[in-house]
Write a structure and sequence with these properties.
The complex is a heterodimer of chains A (412) and B (296). Chain A is α+β, with helices and mostly antiparallel strands. Chain A has 18 helices and 8 strands. Chain B has a single domain, classed as MetI-like (MetI-like fold, Orthogonal Bundle), CATH 1.10.3720. Chain B has 14 helices and 2 strands; from the N terminus they run ααββαααααααααααα. The longest helix of chain B has 33 residues. Chain B starts with a helix and ends with a helix. The chains are: A alpha+beta (412), B mainly alpha (296).
Chain lengths: 412, 296
């Protein structure tokens, strides 16, 4: 490149230099934007793999780590609870009702109670209080603990994938103790690891979500293809007026419809079931009719004419000619509906009354509001599980997604 | 009507029959019913009782209604312009001939398909006043000026700007639409302008902008409709429909939702819904006028 530039006349060289400078600026801006867009997702993933106390460490750290220390001569995995701010001692109480308990004393406290304690070792400020962490023993009361110098703590990178199964159990609203109890049961008798309580769990929520998504997608594809065909490929009196009205309904905000719809579903006995979330999809919708109609209109009319001359019925033309040619548009409608149904929150919040019919989005929100934000590692793990299928779907069908979105914009 | 006309009408109605049912059941009936309810005293437990304009008169005197309307307009007023600028800038960057365009496009698009409940949860954590990543990054920058970062979603003054920031993370959808629009701008126009010696800004102002004006119009209208109906983000971050902290995130739709389904004042909620509909229609009309004027 350099030799080529040296041979070029000066103005060309200057404009090339300008062009390459421009390239650097563009890449610089793109890289900055990419960093901003990616950071939240990376933070979600990092948090989901951390032990709980690391989520609350300041300044925050990115790489999930685990710590171990010697407790009673045994190297065990520990959580770092806090740093001691004053020098003192760890001592065992030798008399009174609290005999046998080990506590952390400041030097003055230790001096005052000299007679009734037995000093075990000194503690300097900056040392860490650590608590043993094990599958069966997370409640601090019963766990072993000590205060140790920072250099006695061994730290290494470890991704806590076990946060994920625990987060999924937590989704059903169980407390940490129950989760631990379940883990204990699972550890002692792996064969009997099935959930012991009858509360609906992750698999129920996933099943509900998939039911709503799949039945909805089938309905959207079937109904909208039929209806869009009627608008795109047939000429009939009133068609254009009806189509104009159909387009106009896209402007109607959902709150205008919500009260009578709720009343209707209540009359039908659908409240508390998944039906309100997927059944309406079988009766077409303005947006999808529009999307498919636009596509159907691009198919040459001669194909239909030829088939009509051959004596094909209108339904046969639709079924055998138009549908097979419209796979990309049908896939777009299917994907967009899947995405909508998977992400929908207001619908489930309105119509689902019992936990056993919750979808994932609703279960996630209800878990979060119950434990009011302290188990961020579990919350992030559960969120990641909710996001993952959508991300996978996106990567498998990226082209359909992007083209579909792009065509929705070109309707004006 | 000739037999042929009748036959084609029948087959047209036949193909669209599902939508005729769907339109009647899920659009037309609910619209008419809610318009009727908006003039009634109605809880779902008893049949509606006509009360004339009472609901609308009460609305005018309802402080929470005005609060929710102000909050919503504040949010939309920030989120729509900033979202448009962000999405359009990203699309313009991607429209430059750069290698790895598909990679960047994927990256910017991805957050927009993340389920809103999950992304709200994520931002709730990112914006946590004590342990959040945002403040951890901001604190050392602000410290030399003697400032401390806000607690965002827990601070009535910062909760709405924080929600706007969240919404900007999801501009990928609009960006893809802009990018498609930009790629439809005829290349010859740019070449002709380059020969005339037009710089980057005149080219953008006189070629790009007029060509993609319909796409901007579409995105702004859709963005406005969505922003005015903000619900899930607010519901998740405020842990309910009350608009915590201090009603600063009491938006229109959550207020309507709680009026209808917690207080069971469904007539009143329907009146609110029709006011929202009128607002959206009015703004859409205004945008259409602006669009038409700017093109001529």
């Amino acid at each position: 490149m350099e030799t080529a530039a040296e041979k070029s006349p000066a103005p060309v060289r200057a404009s090339r230099a300008r062009a390459s400078r421009r390239q650097y600026v563009i890449y610089g801006l793109l890289a900055c934007a990419a960093l901003v867009f990616l950071t939240p997702l990376a933070w979600l993933l990092a948090t989901s793999l951390k032990p709980v106390e690391q989520t609350m460490s300041m300044p925050p750290t990115w790489i999930p780590r685990t710590h171990s220390a010697l407790l009673d001569g045994e190297r065990v995995e520990v959580s770092r609870d806090y740093q001691v701010t004053q020098p003192g001692v760890i001592a065992e109480i030798t008399a009174g009702p609290e005999a046998g308990r080990r506590l952390l004393f400041t030097d003055e406290q230790a001096a005052a109670r000299q007679a009734e304690i037995r000093v075990l070792h000194r503690v300097e400020s900056g040392w860490w209080r650590v608590t043993e962490r094990s599958a069966t023993n997370i409640v601090a009361r019963t766990a072993r603990w000590d205060v140790v110098p920072p250099e006695a703590i061994e730290s290494r990178v470890r991704f806590r994938w076990e946060n994920y199964p625990k987060a999924l159990v937590a989704l059903s609203g169980k407390s940490v103790e129950e989760i631990e109890a379940e883990a204990r049961r699972g550890a002692s008798a792996p064969a009997a690891a099935a959930p012991a309580s009858d509360a609906p769990g992750f698999s129920t929520f996933l099943g509900n979500t998939l039911t709503v998504c799949v039945l909805g997608v089938l309905g959207v594809v079937f109904s909208n293809a039929l209806v869009a065909y009627g608008f795109a490929r047939l000429r009939w009196r009133g068609r254009d007026t009806f189509f104009a009205i159909t387009l106009a309904t896209m402007m109607v905000p959902f709150p205008v419809l919500v009260v009578p719809l709720y009343g209707l579903f209540k009359q039908l006995g659908w409240i508390g079931t998944l039906l309100p979330l997927w059944a309406p999809a079988w009766f077409a919708s303005a947006f999808n009719i529009f999307l498919l109609r636009q596509f159907f209109r691009t198919i040459p009319e001669e194909l239909s004419e030829a088939a009509r001359i051959d004596g094909c019925s209108e339904f046969a033309i639709f079924w055998r000619i138009i549908l097979p040619l419209s796979k990309p548009a049908l896939a777009t409608a299917a994907l967009l509906h899947f995405l909508f149904a998977w992400n929908d929150f207001m619908g489930p919040l309105l119509y689902l009354t019992r936990q056993k019919s919750f979808t994932l989005a609703l279960a996630l929100q209800s878990y979060q509001s119950q434990q009011s934000g302290v188990q961020w590692h579990y919350l992030m793990a559960a969120s990641a599980v909710t996001i993952l299928p959508i991300v996978l779907l996106f990567f498998f069908a990226q082209k359909t997604f992007i083209q579909g979105i792009a065509t929705t914009g070109s309707r004006s | 009507m000739t037999p042929r006309d009748r036959r084609s009408l029948l087959s047209g109605l036949g193909f669209t029959s599902l939508w005729i049912v769907g339109f009647g059941t899920f659009v037309a009936y609910p619209m008419l019913a809610s318009l009727f309810y908006s003039f009634c005293d109605y809880s779902i437990l008893k049949s509606p009782v006509w009360c004339g304009f009472e609901n609308y008169q009460t609305l005018v005197r309802d402080d929470l209604f005005w609060k929710s309307l102000r909050n919503t307009l504040f949010f939309a007023g920030l989120a729509v312009p900033l979202g448009t600028i962000t999405a359009l800038s990203l699309a313009l960057l991607l429209n430059c001939e750069v290698r790895g365009r598909a990679f960047f496009r994927t990256l910017f698009y991805l957050p927009s398909i993340v389920p809103v409940v999950a992304s709200s949860m994520l931002w709730l954590w990112m914006l946590n006043g004590k342990f959040g990543l945002i403040n951890a990054l901001l604190a050392p920058v602000l410290a030399p000026f003697g400032l401390t970062p806000p607690v965002w979603l827990a601070d009535p003054a910062w909760a709405k700007p924080a929600l706007v920031m969240m919404s900007l993370w999801g501009v990928g959808n609009a960006m893809v639409i802009y990018l498609a629009g930009l790629q439809n701008v005829p290349r010859e126009l740019y070449e002709a302008a380059a020969i005339d010696g037009a710089g980057a800004w005149p080219r953008f102002r006189h070629i790009t902008l007029p060509t993609i004006a319909p796409v901007i119009y579409f995105n702004v209208i859709m963005g406005l409709i969505n922003a005015l109906q903000i619900f899930t983000q607010a519901f998740v971050i405020a842990e309910g429909a009350e608009g915590n902290p201090a009603r600063s995130t009491l938006f229109y739709t959550p207020y309507l939702f709680s009026t209808a389904f917690y207080d069971l004042r469904m007539g009143y909620a329907s009146a609110m819904a029709w006011v929202l509909f009128a607002l959206i229609a009015g703004l859409a009309w205004l945008a259409t006028r602006l669009m038409r004027d700017s093109l001529h």
